[in-house]
Amino acid sequence: MTMTHAVRVMAAFALHGSCVGVLYARLPEIQAALGLSKGAFGLALTAMPAGVVLGNLFVSALVESVGPRRSLLAGLPVFAAMTIPVALAPGLPALALLGFGVGLALGNLAINVEADRIEAQSGRRIMNRCHGWWGIGFLGVSLASVGLIGLGTAPVTHFTVFALVATGLTLWLIGPLRDHPARPGAGAPRRFAIPGRAAFVIAGFATAGILLEGIGRSWGVIYLRDALGLSEQFAALALPALIGALTLGRFLGDGGVQRWGALAVERTMAAATAAGIVMVVVAQGPMLALTGFAVIGLGICISIPLGFSAAAKTPGRPAAETMAAFSLISTVIGFVSPPAFGFVAEVAGLRMAMAALLPFTLLAWYFAPVLAPPRTDAEAASA
């Protein structure tokens, strides 16, 4: 079977997501096996986003110098194998999780850079579908892990077999890729991907999506249980409502952006996100609340993919550098948002905490012009 470069890159996104999913599915067992309290294990888990931030600071120069293809060929197998030390680490597995975070950052940057280069060469959008496949990979491996847990498979055995399979899939998927040229007009790469004005503006646009995805995953079920008084079983529907709509939207997003343009689509999505928040805040019953979470998922579905695309098009800096800077900011926002939401909810209540997210949809609307591609010299001269 002949696979296009775009299909191979989408599969690489799914493989990267599965590397994350396989670890997350076994973390509760690892906590129990290490005999760590929830507080101690929670502290150890902060090493993972710290590793992502650290990785994003310096891996952009590596991806630019060796290319995303070579970065993935070497990086994905190592990233998959870095799950094994987490299961074996004595005491606090913080060092192993830090290394896993660095590997996550490298793989994430390389697949996004490659997706952008294919978009630039082909003239067709694939970034949103790529991120949709990432979610499919995460979800698929998580569900498969449930079966292996039921069979009593030890995490270290699971991780070892997974790493071997991931290595074979990487060679099959990435090996035939050819190196695509970088976008023209990029400056020389710097040693560290320090966020600049462009990265912060793009992050300003994407903040609503980053916040709501993280908060929805962490607090959606709790919101339905405590604010609406629903049973645990019914409240659990908040997560598939949000993530299902988000994933579906990402598979449909490329066609919409191709047809109507990123600016028009994203401003429509910002309005939809605001409407979804209002529905969740005013809901007195489960159907309106679940619909609201689904509308939120649809509204934020393309924020992060379009953020990566906008970062890649930033003039004057290599695509990998601005994408890494944007990813760094996104990681920090995503890390602090669930506890910040919890603090506001403790002080003002869950409904007010959710309502406090509405202004961020205005930020998405205001900063959406960053998605418009920069004009060429010829276009500027004729304007």
What descriptive keywords fit this protein?
383 residues, 80% helix, 18 helices, 2 domains, mainly alpha, Growth Hormone, Chain: A, disordered C terminus
General description of the model:
- Mean pLDDT is 87; it is low at 375-383.
- The protein folds into 2 domains: 5-174, MFS general substrate transporter like domains (Growth Hormone, Chain: A), CATH 1.20.1250.20; 197-372, MFS general substrate transporter like domains (Growth Hormone, Chain: A).
- The chain is built from 18 helices and no strands.
- Helices cover 80% and strands 0% of the residues.
- By secondary structure, it is mainly alpha-helical.
- Helix 4 (68-81) packs antiparallel against helix 6.
- It is found in: Membrane.
User: Which stretches are poorly predicted, pLDDT < 50 over at least 5 residues?
Assistant: 375-383
**Percentage of residues in strands:** under 5%
What is the CATH C level class of the largest domain, in words? Answer: Mainly Alpha
Instruction: Say which CATH homologous superfamily of the largest domain is assigned.
Output: MFS general substrate transporter like domains
